[in-house]
Amino acid sequence: MLGKSLIKMASSYEEVDLDDLQDCSHYLRKCCLVAPCCKKFFICRLCHDISESHTLDRYSVEEIVCIQCKLKQAVTDRCINCHIKFGHYACLVCRMFDDRDKKQFHCDKCRICRIGGEENFFHCPKCDMCLAIGIKESHKCIEKISRSDCPVCLEDMHTSRTPLLVPSCGHMIHEGCYSAMRKTGAITCPICCKSYDDAAMVWKRLDEIVGATPLDDKYKDIKMKILCRDCHKESEAQFHIVGIKCGECGSYNTCQS
């Protein structure tokens, strides 16, 4: 019965023309996807999204085409005709195939494939994302934070193919976006305004500048009530034109309360 059903299934499949198929810079694989939205052939969903004005739902793909024998067939990890494997790594849930070893693994809770080795990550149910095992005990959980967009480029972070940074405030950001932002002099989270973890070097430099910038006598007795955006404590501090330092944590990330 099984053999007959396979023969019947295969007989309805067709050989297609792939002359117009464009090369893919994202993955190395031996099959292409049949996009159900526009009925076109693409090596991967990213190639589709770059070429078309709409996005491809990876889970909606029901057919693929073997690049070697050009046979259109249901989603599988090996061609039913020439038996070639479509990728060293294959995930039929995500329609993901890749001949490059990136230590890929599928997370059922994330519902996508990730790279870097499953043993190096844990899934945080509150953040709703796989995070590096090294920050399992130290990271700050924010409900479904991965489902939000990067605060700089406004692109999705849950399915991002670029590395993410998880600062102490918990608001994720693309590493590249963080680096670009820091080059402009920004040192605080665009969402909560808390200073990033490496801001201590900036405070040390400001201490030196304040020490080298004496105030005129008319400013020396001015005190201000301030709120620190880092430790969230109110205090009274000495006014200075360079910056006003929090007496609790030493941060200059303060505002008048």
What tags apply to this protein structure?
257 residues; alpha+beta; four-stranded antiparallel beta sheet; three-stranded antiparallel beta sheet
State the gist of this model.
This protein is of the alpha+beta class and 257 residues long. 15% of the residues lie in helices and 20% in strands.
Low-confidence stretches: 1-12
Strand content: 15-25%
CA-atom Rg in angstroms: 27 Å
For the biggest sheet, the summary is: 4 strands, antiparallel
Count of helical stretches = 4
Class by helix and strand content?
A: alpha+beta
Q: Let me know the average pLDDT.
A: 89
Question: Could you characterize the architecture of this molecule?
Answer:
The chain is an alpha+beta fold and 257 residues long. 15% of the residues lie in helices and 20% in strands. The strands form 6 sheets. The protein has a 4-stranded antiparallel sheet. A hairpin with a 6-residue loop joins β1 (31-34) and β2. The longest helix is centred in the C-terminal third of the chain and has 12 residues, at 200-211. The radius of gyration is 27 Å and the shape is elongated.
